[in-house]
Amino acid sequence: MKEKLHEQLSALVDDELPDAEQALLLRQLGTDPGLCRRLARYQIISDALQNHLPPQVDAGFHQSIQVALQDEPALHVESPRFAGLFKPLAGLAVAASVAVVAVLSLQSIRNEPVSTPVLASAPVAQDYLRADIRTLPASSPQTPQNLDAYLVNHNEYAVNRGMLPYVRLVAHEMNVDGKE
Amino acid sequence: MKWLLLASVVLAGPVSLQAAFATGDLVPNSAREWLDSMSSALQTLNYDGTFVYLHDGKLEAMRIVHQAGAGGEKERLMSLTGSAREVLRDDKVVTCIMPDNKSVMVGQSRPRQPFPDVPENLDSLSPYYQLRDVGEDRIAGLMTRVIAVTPRDKYRYGYRFWIDTTNFMLLKFELSDVDGTAIEQVMFTGLEMGGRISTATLEPSLTGEGYNWFRQEGGGENPAVSPVQPDWSVTRLPAGFKMTDFQRRLVRQGGEHAEHMVFSDGLATVSVYVEKVMANETAYSGLSNMGAMNAYGAVLDDYQVTVVGEVPAATVQSVARSVSKR
């Protein structure tokens, strides 16, 4: 069930969810904060993959959206019957207006020759990027226990691309095909 | 919905390369020079950035901090997702802290190799790779020059570098197979260059206390165990690969001294390790991989042969199967 929901979310991000399913999904989004967070994560990943990274962001952006959303729903709820449907739509409208403000303020920051501590935004990005796009296979009992040691040793012989070769070790995703 | 994306790039502080660039002293005018400038920037710039690493349909976020100065280079690379693995590196040692298996590994660092001499090729000068300046592209709002290194056969990978046109920092990297299918991608989502790096940001977040520590032996430190000729030979290597190094050293905990042979075609590097299987150990055979890094294990009598390299699986497999006792 959950898997199906996650697939629908993914399709929504890609603009590939049939209209008939959209209404139901939006209703569920209105009542499930966890699902909303997942949608945000999927969107981040989609943007990263498609290279739609804005030049700069405000570190408090994420929080300001949350605060705005908390205040918003009551304004649009006309009857309990439609509450679920209106919530997410209202949320998007508010978020969009916050985004405009954020983009404008970012543009002004870029014109100034001062350094903004970029990594202040890192914890937010980290939160979004902690996505389980795919369930990772459990470590196989056949995993060569000492491969890490060989990799560390080998990396020092690689052509200079900074720490890039170590990215794999830090990612720690070893796939094992097993014995022949 | 693009408002959800949170990423940023700020160029901060004076950067010497930038000044030189402004005066026209360092403007690369070939693909080869762009790669040289990138190599130099990775070593000489201070930078602190977050990036995403895409591989096998997965996406992970990491942070890298690099400090350059009279005291040498200092780097720290850490995972922001999943297990909080960290790698710290200076001019002497490389330390890997792995909380997932409560271990710390300390290896000897080696001077960074400059970018190899891949000939500029528009006329088949290199039999193994073609080097091209593909043009400009924007990454995270910054203009980059894209340099492509394309393999000519299936035994090596291709690389694509997106290099910042101002500071020559590597902003995006893609590794692909001979058909051009991307296997790995690294892309910065936030980066600060040229600023001061505080000592605290280069300190590990974990002390490693209570962890199992293992210190790898440096190569060539003990002449008694560094014979001139390896006891093992590799008979089948893809064209262009030559032995560039040979050491005998303790590589892993609980192991014996391993013979370590390094082969390179000038760009890709393959390591061959041969060591005796200990009585209480199970040898392994078959393929493993971490992103584009492939490893192949084979057992030969009482010896474990392990071939590791940033090359296709077919290459490590072929090399491992051709190892024999002299």
Number of strands of chain A: 1
In terms of quaternary structure, what is this? heterodimer
What is the straight-line distance between the termini of chain A? Answer: 37 Å
Secondary structure category of chain B: mainly beta
Shape of chain A: elongated
Question: Separation of termini of chain B?
Answer: 63 Å
Task: State the helix count of chain B.
Answer: 3
Largest interface: A-B, 79 and 102 residues
The fraction of residues assigned to DSSP E strands of chain B is: over 45%
The dominant shape of chain B is: globular
Uncertain segments of chain A: 51-143
H/E series of chain B, N to C? EHHEEEEEEEEEEEEEEEEEEEHE
Low-confidence stretches of chain B: 1-24, 117-125, 221-225
Strand content of chain A: under 5%
Strand and helix order of chain A: HHHHHHHHE
Largest sheet features of chain B: 13 strands, mixed
Taking all Cα atoms into account, the compactness measure Rg of chain B is: 21 Å
Q: How many distinct helices of chain A?
A: 8
Report what the structure shows.
The complex is a heterodimer of chains A (about 180) and B (about 325). Chain A contains eight helices and one strand; from the N terminus they run H-H-H-H-H-H-H-H-E. In chain A, helix 2 crosses helix 3 and helix 2 packs across helix 5 (about 85-110). By secondary structure, chain A is mostly helical. By secondary structure, chain B is mainly β. In chain B, the strands form three sheets. In chain B, strands 1, 2, 3, 4, 5, 6, 7, 8, 9, 10, 11, 12 and 13 form a 13-stranded mixed β-sheet that branches. Chain B has a six-stranded antiparallel β-sheet with strand order 15-16-17-20-19-18, with helices on one face. In chain B, strands 14-21 form a two-stranded antiparallel ribbon. In chain B, a hairpin with a 5-residue loop joins strand 10 (about 160-165) and strand 11. The longest helix of chain B has 14 residues, at about 30-45.
